[in-house]
Amino acid sequence: MVLGLQTFARRWYEVVCKTAPEPYLDEVFHVPQAQKYCEGKYLEWDDKITTPPGLYLIDTAFRGILRISQCSTASLRLENVVAIVATGMVAAMCRSLLETRLAQGQGKQLAQPLSFYAMHTGLNIALLPVLFFFSGLYYTDVYSTLMVLVTYYNHLCRLSPHGKSLLNDLWTIVIGIMALLMRQTNIFWVVVFQGGVEVAHAVKTLQHVPEAAPRFNTLTDVVRYYAWRYSVGDIHDPPLNIAWLDDWFFALLSIAVAAICNPLRVLKQVWPHISLMGLFGGFVLWNGSVVLGDKSNHVATIHLAQMLYIWPLFTFFSGPLLLPAVSPFLDIVRNAYSINFNHRGTIPRDPHEPAGSSSRLSSHYRRDPKKKRPSAKGESTTPPGPDSSSFSLQAVDALVRSKLYYIPYFLSTLLASFLIVHYNTIIHPFTLADNRHYMFYVFRYTIRRPGHVRYYLIPAYTFCRLACWACLSGSSLRLIDSQDQPAPVRFWSRPFADAPATARAGEQRAEEQAAARPPPMLPHVGMLDSPDSGSALAPPTSAAALWLLATALSLVTAPLVEPRYFILPWVFWRLLVPANRRLSTEPLLPGWLRRLAGKVDLRLVLETAWFVAVNLGTMYIFVTRPFVWRSEDGEVLDGGRVQRFMW
Question: What is the C-alpha end-to-end distance of the chain, expressed in Å?
Fold first, then answer.
């Protein structure tokens, strides 16, 4: 895979250098600035450059170490070829370590140091067309992505029992600064996303004695009890594939309460991230803006429509991954009687709300009081009956368990989308003026068309959003509950739901011991049919919520709709997407292909083919469709310089 990626990137670099040997578009600013750094002129700066000098500092360091005196456009571009290969390798390492952390959370010990799913994920991340295209040019995007992935790998190492130390804290600050020197918006991924996950990790490691929930007579009793349990670290953070919207609420609430009640524990874990935020805040105050140059054209603006555009973009690039998510619609087309509604609910589910235990409508308040429920200690307790609880408690319990809140929630998302499209559709002058970028034509034939076309896109935004969240959770958009039973959940602590199987106290200690042991180094990679594979494990709810927060912060402040701004949101979304083996049971596939689907995720094969096809298409257009700008009367503009289409 590495050799294939390197060959593809090197060939693209050679084609670009042959076709466009002179600096093109943003290279007009980056190449001369890098050459100034090569000459040691570190105080000279082009005011048109908005990003920090991290890319130029890396170039200078490499040339100093390797003793390379040449600083031509071709030699500068070549470094991005190295960076794109490194990006694929580091992404694979991140996915592999993430699988290890997810497995350790369920008491598993992975036998393979690297899964095939992780390796293939790393390859596809490097092949993302918006990212791979710029590996042949001298842009900041590839190195920026690489540095953020390096910080993420370090972050995953810090989540192990022995991964955090004072030396690692200092290293976290150093590589965090390096990531910020590449691009200012990396602050959201280095501090908000990674720092937020470490806050959740800090409170998850608090030592607390498991305790069965007592009888509740009033809603106040519920609030008091769970506020106390959350304060001692008994938090709620289930995997995303069994989390409904109310699980999101209790997960964020429990982590917030635990963090507030244990500030020293949290500060000990995240002080490097707080330091990075302080340094970044000091830079903004000193500079007077987030960007370095061209401040008038890069003014921070609330642009909520970005959170609508992101889902079609994800769907376009990751369509093959979404096939299982939309499989119910394929089932309906193939067999109108394939969906059995008997004995299961028919409540629509948001991707926030995949199949899971809390979706089951049987309430422990309505169960037979004689039945017992195992507690976290393995004991039995009698749940409270409806006669002993207050009306408000029963009402809230019925509302949460029935998921009736989903109807107004879903309608509110449609209303919010309409209001955003109506009042917050922002079209930046750069989008209108530059026909060299594909986004110019996307806006021209969709959002900027006369009439109500922009409003007709709201259903598409909604469907793409649902499909992307279903893909992230590893579930589908079925209107009925899945028959799949969730694995034992360790971090489950919430009212108004029947708890799934939970880890006992002894099992939790075994998990901690397993996490402390390094994984055995075997000479082969893990496949999906391995009994201890962690590739199909869904991310925790807190990680998904933090991803959404970091994505929103990085996009809604940008008035310009630029595909490159979506690279890091997609990369982290892609890293969190679990493997899927559902194609192994697809009756339309031949037997040998179903057997193969049981070992590898065939969606990734389709994703690779799609990325290669898109890359070849954009490369072909860039190379073979040059043009020159002309005025309406045919006069040649911009000195007759050749223009080319690109992202």
Answer: 25
**Secondary structure in 3-state letters for 565-613:** HHHHHHHHHHHHCCCCCHHHHCCCCCHHHHHHHCCCCHHHHHHHHHHHH
Could you read off the pLDDT of 18-31 as tens digits, one per residue? 999 999 999 999 99
Query: Are the C-beta atoms of 154 and 175 separated by less than 8 Å?
Result: yes
Token pair for 291: 């960007």
Token pair for residue 330?
Answer: 């394929």
What are the tens digits of pLDDT across the range 313-322? 999 999 999 9
Residue type, 638: D
pLDDT at 501: 57
- pLDDT band at 460, cuts 50/70/90? very high
Residue whose pair of structure tokens reads 């036998």 in the numeric block: 111
Mean pLDDT of the chain: 84
Phi, psi angles (nearest 5°) of residue 380: -120, 145
Structure tokens at 162: 């022995």
Query: Are 92 and 216 within 8 A, CB to CB?
Result: no
C-alpha to C-alpha distance for 541 and 351, rounded to whole angstroms: 12
Q: What is the torsion angle, in degrees rounded to the nearest 10, for the CA atoms of residue 351, residue 357, residue 359 and residue 364?
A: -160
CB neighbours of residue 169 within 10 Å:
17
What's the distance, CA 95 to chain centroid?
12
**What mean pLDDT comes out for the span 166-183?**
96
550 exposure class (CB count in 10 Å sphere: 0-12, 13-18, 19+): buried
What is the three-class DSSP state of 489?
strand
More confident residue, 479 or 2: 2
